[in-house]
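Subject line: Sequence and fold of a protein, written as structure tokens
Area: Proteins and the way their chains fold up in space.
Start of record: The labelled sequence and token lines come straight after this line.
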Amino acid sequence: MAHRWVDVHAHFTPPTTREESEARWKAMRDGLFLVPKPYEWTVESTLGYMDRADIQMQLLSNIPKTLDKLRASNDYGASLVSQYPSRFGLLAALPTDDPQAALVEIERAANDLHADGFAVTCHYNGVYLSDPSLDPVWAELDRRRAVVFVHPNAYAPASLGRPSPLLEVAFETARTLVDMLYAGMFRKFPNMNLIVAHCGGALPALSGRLIALGTEVWVPNPNHLTKDEMKQHLSSLYLDTAATGRASSLAPALTMTTCDHIIYGSDSGVPCSTEETLEANRNELLAFNGLSREQIQNIGRNALNLFPLAAARIDKVTNK
């Protein structure tokens, strides 16, 4: 059984009007994301599930597509942490289509909102995380030794008649991380820690092919990465278990990185997750026979090594 686990992949929604909620629902259905009714996130239902599942804390993230909504969402997330300091943490969203605005939000989130870390989307308003214009943003995150949660765009258009959250999120994640690798970002910015959603998507399964072929002469390699460097950079990534707590995902992940870089994530708080799917995923993780019982329990608490502010808030309540 899980015991006081920390969940790095949990979403929230700021208060919305009925009209906004229904417009979002219609947009999802237009993209073949066929949720049967508008989704409503509430603090009460989230805490109820956390108590039933023995989840001590969720690190919350939400990345709206406009700067005003993104900043308002970060403010709301910070207010939740203030109300429930031992139950929630905040991964402040960054507007990575605008490097200057992102730098301002890093400063605001760190100093005013006391965010635990940051959240970014692989492809945000047309700009990939590997875009060279973002180098100043990565440099600042690297200077701060920040923890950055990388999530694909789950609301992208459908692909071949299927909604993006089913398959495309995994491939977008792999494409983006591979492009970041070839751009030399992990070489230039070695001090930040990236948590990649959904166990890295398709990246772990493709990592062996990438290392085998990725430095061949027919592959553009402007930064002259070596096989050993590729292995080093890929193994430095942290991977969460959201919708991927199964052997089919965990076994490839453990060939790319180590057990201490696997972190519990649920994907709670979004329309594609239900309590049934969350529990099925968590139970599969608990039953995984590729790791010891102790190692699996550590996965549920590994996040505390990355988020000292969150760990301190938990300890403050626990030690009262």
In short: The chain has one domain: 5-318.
